[in-house]
Structure formats: structure tokens, C-alpha cells
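Notebook entry, structure prediction.
Reason for the run: the old model in the group folder had no record of what sequence produced it. Starting over properly, with the input documented here first.
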Amino acid sequence: EQIMPEYLLDRIGGEPALEAAVDVFYGKVVADDKLAEFFKSSTIETLKEHQRKFLRMAFTTIPKSINVEDFMYDKHRRLFLEGLNETHFDLVAGHFVATLEKLGVPADQIKEATDIVLPLRPIFEQGAAKAKNSAEEEKEEETRTLLKRLGGEAALEAAVDIFYDKLVADADLAPFFAGRDMDQLKHHQRQFMTIAFTKIPDSLDVGKFMFEKHEKLFLMGLSEMHFDGVAGHFIATLNSMGVEQKLIDEAVAVIAPLRPIFEQGAAKAKAREEDKKEEEEQQAHLLERIGGEPALEAAVNEFYTRLVVDKDLEQFFVGVPLDVLKSHQEAFMRMAFSDSVPDDLDVAAHMRAKHYRLFAIGLNEKHFDKVATHFVETLQHLGVVQALIDEAVQHIAPLRVVFEKGLKK
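New structure, fully documented this time:
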């Protein structure tokens, strides 16, 4: 007695028959006007290979690990969205039967084959509706903000509490929280995460915002290493709350681009602080930058000490109380070096009037130059930087013409 092969594939002719059947079968389906549209964007040889794999499995043993309904739905999901349904299934099944008949497969084996294939028809009956619902759900899921998918405001509230407990317990991060109002920090963190995990306004420059919020900390040494530590605690927080990895990855993708701000933050903050200090210095009056009233008093004392011992100048100080001269000198320098010269004051006329008696006894521009030299040397002696000395000289130099003219009109 002849023993029949166990598997249908062997009984219908094995691999050669399968190869021939798939070729004939696809020749029929692609020639069918009602089916051809579903093959336009596909490579026929690839489809044939997939078909052979499926029939080989169907006509031998389907692994228990494979859910055939899910497998067929997933493979045809795109086509279901294009309109594939049970009517098309019936046409395909008809071509399948006609193929086996053409190849001379006995009727009982054809029935056995169709009994394997026909139970798949409900997948095609329900496929379009299922695919449409699935697509709508996916679209709705995409439109839901990350914040909602993470659990909404309640989850955010809990996450920030856990997150900050981890941060302040980290020895490397704790110094940045010393003396800070934790409730206020948490409030700011929730506000930022609400924006980051919903929609960041187009008007918000996130890089600038983050730098300005952390500028003081950058000056304390905050860097990318601390950012990495914070990010690690953020991930650990979400893990502890049972957030699925896909959402954690999505949240990290929102935050990770901020790392360069922390890489460059310290250098940028230091440069900005220096620029600010320089700007403040430039905006300050020369008197303040030289050292203020104490420096002015010291300068005048040193200045007059030099003047009265100069053989070319001593004659102009005979019989004049030095305290009075020093007081007048301080008043003049205070006015000149603090940009407080009254608008109605003619400085040249004022200087001519103050030195009229001295012009009469020979005071001239050569004496002015000697006085100017002592002035510069006085400031150098007191350690004033050259740039400020040059600026001070610029205030005084225009007065030389008064001494050139002397008593001349």
C-alpha cells in the first residue's frame, strides 16, 4: 500500500509545483483589471517570493508562534487603506483555484488547499474598517502632546517632585541648589516641561532662555557634565514611574539638543560678565574709574608736591596758600573728570581769568607743558593705568591754547 505524504505541499508536487503555481497565479492576478491597481507600486518578483514562503508554510506546518490573522492583516494593511476587501479576496481565490486546475492538481487536493486559504476571508471583510480605525487612532495619537501621553499634569507634578529629590541628593549637583527656593524651582521646572512637552512658541528662543536662566550657575562652574547627570536623573525618574521606553526616548529627544548650551555656558557667561564689567567701567565717569575722591585727593597732594619744587614753576606759587590752590585744583578736576562742566561755563575764559596775574609775570605754554608732565607722572606714580592717564590728558590738553595766548586777546 502506497503511503501518502504528510504535507499537502509534497502531495501537490513539492517545490517545483509551488514555483510553477506562483508564476501562473501572479500572471493571472496582475492581468485582472480589478486587481491590477494593488500591484502598481510593488515588485512582482518580491511578491512572488513572499507568496511562496506563505504557501510553503500554509501547506506544511504553520508555526505556533505565528498568528496568521495578524500576519495577514499587517501584510495587507496598506492595501486595505486603498480599498482592498473581500470581493478582491474572492477574485484572488478564484485565480488560485484556476491555477491549481491548470497545473492538473486533483480536485481533492485543490479542496484541501482552499480549506486552508478560505478561512482568511474574514480578514479581508474587516480589513478596510480595521485599517481605517487604526490609521485614525495613530493620527490622533500623533496629535496628542507628549505631556498628555506621559500622563498629563498629574504625572508632571509627581515627576518633578521625584526628579528634584534625586538632584538635591546628588553631591555633584547639590551646590547649585544651596540657598535656593525649591518650591519656586519646581514651579519653574513644571512650566518649562509643560512648554517643552506640548508646543514651544515660535517666539521663544530656547537657547537664549536656558542660558539666561542658568547664567549665574555657569559662573559657578555648571557644565555639560552636570547636564549629563541631570539627564540621567530625569531618565531614572521616568523609569521609576513606569513610563514606557518609547516615551522616555521621545522626552530625551526634546531635551538632548540643549546640551551644547551647557558645553559653552561657562565660557559664554564669563565673557559676558567681563563685557558687562567693561561696559560699566566705560559708562562710569573718569573720576570714578581713576579711583574716586580718595584718588583725587591723593593725586592733588602728589601733584602739588612736585610743582612747588620745580625751579621753573616755583615762582608762580610764591605767597599763595597751597591749601587754597589744592582745593581749587580738586574742584576743577572733579568737574572736568566727572563730565559735570556747566553748559554755560566758558572754560577757556575761566582759565584765563584764574591765571591772569600769572600770565603778567611770564606764565606760558612751556610752563603748561611742565605742569602737564608732572600731572602725568603723578598719575603714573599712583598706579593709574595708561589708558586712563591718556583719557585724563585729553581733558586737559585743549587748555594749552589758553597758555599760548596768555594776555593776548
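Summary: The CA atoms of residues 38 and 79 lie 7 Å apart.
The old model has been moved to the deprecated folder.
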